[in-house]
Amino acid sequence: MRIRRCFELATVVICASLAGLGQAAANEDAAHALAEKFAVKTASDAPKAKAEEEQVIIADPRRLAHDPQRQAAEEAKRKAEEEQAQAEARRKADEASKREAARKAEDARKQAEAKRKADEEKRLAAEAAQRQAEEARKQAEARRAAEERRMAETAAKRDEERRQADARRKAEEEQRLAEAKRKADEEARKAEDEKRRVTYENEMLQRARREAEERQAAAEKARAEQEAREAERIAAERAEEEQAEKARRLAEEQRQARETFIAERTRAEEARRAEEKRIADERLADEERLAEEKRADEARQLAERQRLAREQFLAEEHRRAEEQRQAEERRIAEQKRVAEEQRLAEERRAEQERLAEETRAADARRLAERQRIAREQFMAERQRAAEDQRLADERRIAEERQQALAADREAEHQRLTERLLRREEDRKFRELKDERGPMGLGARPAPAAPPVAHTPATSAQTFAGMMPATRVTVLLVMQPGTNGIRRYGPKTADPVLCTTASCWVGAGVDRNAIVMRRMQALGSGNTLGRRAAACNHHLACAFRAIDLQGPAATVQPIDMRILRHDRREFLKIEADPSCRLARGALTCEKTYTARTWRAWVVPEALAAKAGPSALEAALASGLATERPSAELIPTGL
Question: Is the Cβ–Cβ distance between 537 and 492 less than 8 Å?
């Protein structure tokens, strides 16, 4: 850099000198005048005048014409220009070589990248071809197996039809044939019913799978698949049992016909085998003759091919020698190119490893950060779950305490009622005894009864009316579900009514509801079976003769689905004494209303008196609310 800078400065000085020489040669008179001007300087300016005079003398072209210093300067200038030109040429050559090397390196990199991409595409194509071949092989095997099964089924069906035809031809009792046909029709109808049931179950399972996909829960999906397999297995076992039963009946009906048919088929089979053996012997002899002729033709063709092959071999040897020589030259050039590519590849690999190491370090940092966040989220979730569980336990304990207090109050009320009844009976007995006592002459009057506390006149029926009704009929109206399979499907529900330990399944407006354990009602057996029974596909349903086991109970409607049931809000209910039956219409002033359901709680005696028609009319009216409902009980069950 410093040498180049010196060359540039020298070039500027030389150019300035040449410009000055040209200017002096063009204006010689001006130069002389300038020299004379500088020659008349005063003595005080002698050193400066001397220096200026020397400059004027150097600038004089007549004095510089034969000056050896000028010639040396010009020679040095020419050499400097040549050296500068050579240096510039070398610099340009170096830059050109560097650009060429960079271009070659870039070309080599692009070729290597193209080769790598081509190899990757070939590998992917080979893998795809292998997968396609494997799939084609599996499909071929599946088709072959299906074809074999079809042929076996066809053969079995053909044999079965032949046996049935022989049995029908040889059957003597038309009544038995008609009975067998009727049984076959019944079996077909049963099979069709079973097929429709299996189809319905499959549709329900498909709906369950769609619901599991919407919730994106892998565990629920696995359980759905397991339930589907269980349903298919049960359907297959039922179908096999029905098929076995049908086969046993057919075997019993066709046993006698089969014995005769087997004997005839044995004789026909022996005759067929003898004929096939004779035909096979003739075919074998023809094949041996044709094979001998074919071998002779092949021998002649082989000799001709060998002669042509020798000629081609000689020509191929000559061509191969020439190709080997050219290949050797290409190999040497290729080795040089490969060595250069390997060096560049090593450099790129080192760079890639460095970048990969940096990427791995960054990934490790991100992974550590994600793990830290996940641990914090897990701890927070666990604390939240523990808190939810604690609150749920507290709510459960509080509810159990309330139920226990309600049971104690009921027992105390029962004891008080019995005590009052006994006192009333004793009072009546004493009055009756006083009325029937002897009151003649000489009879001593009865001693005065001790004073007792005054109690209002009542009867057993009055006290019985004061007791709270524990058996009620619940008229339930639900809103359609808004999540899962109910979101886009029909606006309907499959409701059951549950407490914390048991559930009631509706049996209609004219029958008592069926009580079941909660786990049994919500389990897979009932879910895939009768489900909500009479309440299936109904938003409004009646639950008759429900025993609250006390003056009040906490209930929860549940919309049954395949995987995750839709559990609605809990409400505490009790028999509504305001319910009335007027002109055949049932009305209740109090409607128990939650966010997604509402209900009337009708005493069972009044519901029985109203009848199914009044209950259905009340459900159809939607249970219009006339008064605020009971307080919603928050619970996590």
Answer: yes
